[in-house]
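Backbone shape codes
____________________
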Amino acid sequence: MNSGGNMFSRNWFWIVIAVLVLILSRYLFSTGTSSADLIGLNEVAKLASRGEIAKIVVQGDDLFIEQKGKSETLRSRKENDESLLASLEALGVSSERLKDLQVEVKSTPNSGAIFNWLIMLLPMILIFGFFIFIMRQAGAGGQNRAMQFGRSKARKLDTGDRPTITFEDVAGAEEAKQELEEVVEFLKEPQKFAALGARIPTGVLMVGSPGTGKTLLAKAVAGEAGVPFFSSSGSEFVEMFVGVGASRVRDLFDQAKKNAPCIIFIDEIDAVGRHRGAGLGGGNDEREQTLNQILVEMDGFDTETNIVIIAATNRPDILDPALLRPGRFDRKVVVDRPDKRGREAILRVHARGKPLDPKVDLSKIAAQTPGMVGADLENLINEAAILAARRNKRSIGMDEIVESIERVMAGPARRSRVLTEEDRKTIAYHEAGHAIVMESLKNTDGVGKITIVSRGQALGYVMPLPEEDRTLKSKGEYQDELVGLLAGRAAEELIFAEPSTGATNDIERVTKLAKAMVTRYGMSSEIGPLQLQQGESNPFMGMDFGEQRSYSEDVARKIDKEVRGIVELAYKRSLEILSSKMDKLRLIAETLLEKEVLDRQEFLELFDSPVAMEGAAD
């Protein structure tokens, strides 16, 4: 009963407003008479002349006519300010009939005045009611946040509702796990470190490419730590209202201090921690105020606070230097792309609970997915499970996983795409040229698969098969990579005497790589070991406004000449290799036209085929 009474007391004002609206509606739709129901005064005069009227009731300007022998009451209205009898006499009613006519005059309440008064008062009532509603919402505590813009939006996870993810669910980032395990241990057993005079690290900044598992690591920390965990995002602090971001930062840290020891996780901190004064126009005052408040709050920690801030970003280069100094973010944990062993461990984690065919070799899959991060591999396994379900299989086979690799890398197959026979032939020779040159060079990856089945925007492609992950690349490896990229265009020129637009993406990649060799990697004898390429690490509105050239026109001409020379030499090598293997080029291309897809074993059989050797001898 008490709850119902409280609910009524909270809503009484709106009940009154609703009643007023109903009353106004009643007056609006009930006062007055519809013109469709009225008869003219001349009709009343005719009825009076015939003696058919028993009584006329006058109520204001409205006339209610009761007829003799009929129960129906007719309605009319006075047309002027004259008396009713004078109006009827003017319309031809005889004086004898008027003497026999019974007229009753009734007073009527001034409903029009009441209606107008309520109409005038209603807007004031509504404005006053809205004001009361806003004031009540502002003081309603944590339940109603209509005016509580300054309250933090961070989600607090207590012991009972922490994520079930632990460090056992994180693979491929052993060093990062070790760093964060120390933080968890410090919060669980602070005396162990305090006895040696150690100070808890105020902040840990996780840096890594998108999808490498930074947020997953933070969830694992929440699952492992027996302390409250506040999760937020950098974009949640910044609003259109000035001062809201700083207020939310203060509120977040106040909540954290009340719940210490605890962990604060800020995802995508670059949204609020960007370099101050950066970008066009000098910066954003609201964002900078928010950043200043974060810096002040982090400086306010003492050795007994036991609050750790974990932040994640994939753009550490645009963060403000004041945010990165010791005492704020003491540790920088790099969450890098996993190597082959890391990818295999990630695949095993995501394969838990999924029925894999015994023939599935996760080590082989890890070798075929260089450069993929944890999010890619999770998506890969999920796509394989969907494919297996679509094919009504009870387990996930190697075929589904290989298919999912191609779906993740190039998109779904587009077998419905109709190509002319000339286009199919051009694509087949283009891809065969890539495959032959890649297999012929010592510094390039082997051929894993060739296909002329369209996927995504690609009309065909060659899937490389790297033997191992490469951290460093030499000049010779880059030169061989350029030769392989230009091999498709070289094959088209050798077979059809002119290239097509199929090599557009290859040319774009070749141009960027050759320019990087000259201006970034110092692999040009003419330019020397100079880095002349600037601005790429700082995107638009990050810190710099685009790329600024720091060299003369003479150096620019030398760069263009060197880039052109590197590309021309690579193209010449592609033509030479394919010219010496024309039999293999034709054999592999014709087989591709017939089968559309060749795996590595089928390709090697054709590449080393005696028939191809005999063709060469002929």
